[in-house]
Structure of JmjC domain-containing protein:
Amino acid sequence: MRPPRKPPTFPHLARQFSTSKPLYRKPFPLHPSPSTFSKTFTNPTPHHTPTKFPSSFLQPHTPAFKNWFLQTPPYNRLNIPYLHSLSSSYSLDVHVPVEITPPTPGSDVEITSFSWNSFLDYLSLPTDEIDGYNDDNISGDTTIPRLYLTQHQPPHFLLKDLPPPFTHLGFNIRSTSIRRYQQTQPSTPVNTPLNPTNNSSKLPEIDIYSSSIWLSRSSPLPSKQTHTPLHRDPSHNIFLQLSSSKKIIAIPPKLGSKIFTHLYRHSRLESTDPRGRIRDGLLTWKESNVFERVVWGCDDGDEEVDMEYDEVEKEVVELLELCRDEVFETVVERGEAVFIPEGWWHSVKSVPDGEGGGVVGSMNWWFQ
């Protein structure tokens, strides 16, 4: 009989570092031309790395930027009359799954169903009603939970403002994928030439696997930001920032798997399976906090914040520091987009803004 397997430990890392400063990560490289991006797919998948696209690549081809948001700085206030008009022509109010974060620190996130129009009303409420942030209450104490529409296909009446970006990146979308994408939302045509008319046969072909929209309120407070814990996707990912800003950390497949396995085998991630899938779609607050600490560290806007790690967490932080040249990080501003290759582990969180009261909006497409 074999002896029981011991939890893996990382080799001793002699390099010392301060836990009071954010760790260094490489910036996402900026791709020079939208039409040549597809040429990178002539390389095998293991050679793909995260890439950033400037706002000139996709923003001009995405009507949501002009239609959904008021065209005054900071361009993150919703055009509520327009959005209500899109859904008003349908007899049934569409419902969407929304994450609810209670105002009490340390509470677990829950998921419930909201009508689309009710969620829009929440997004447009005054800042002090949601964040509790005003001249008399700078701590942001409030009794109202925060809502987050996360990883859900856009309601069908929104798709005409969210055309797939792939033709502008030099791809040809397979005809079967076009039909499947349109059948998912049959009542709303996609307002884009899904494939170019010239030389399309010479372009690399892709399939659209799925798409998701992400909407939450912006806040000036670091403690009120949305956070997607470290995870990996089975397909390539194009992530487009519609309003406000988000920060992304990307970790290569082997390094991310080593970190995840280490935390899993030390019983820090009970809501997941060994392959990194989250059961029931949610981590507990305690599990999410583990990822927040080891991946983001003291990254809360302050120059120096003392972080105390236990032995399990410390090994992960030391490994990330040792492999610092493999880890990528970027802030995705309004109009910008990023490419995250399949299998790359990544974590995403919103960035505090100076005023609050706006919306943090993102859209992504998974493809192969």
About this structure: The longest strand covers residues 208-217. Residues 253-265 form the longest helix (13 residues). The two ends are 43 Å apart (CA to CA). Confidence is low (pLDDT under 50) at residues 1-8, 10-18, 186-192.
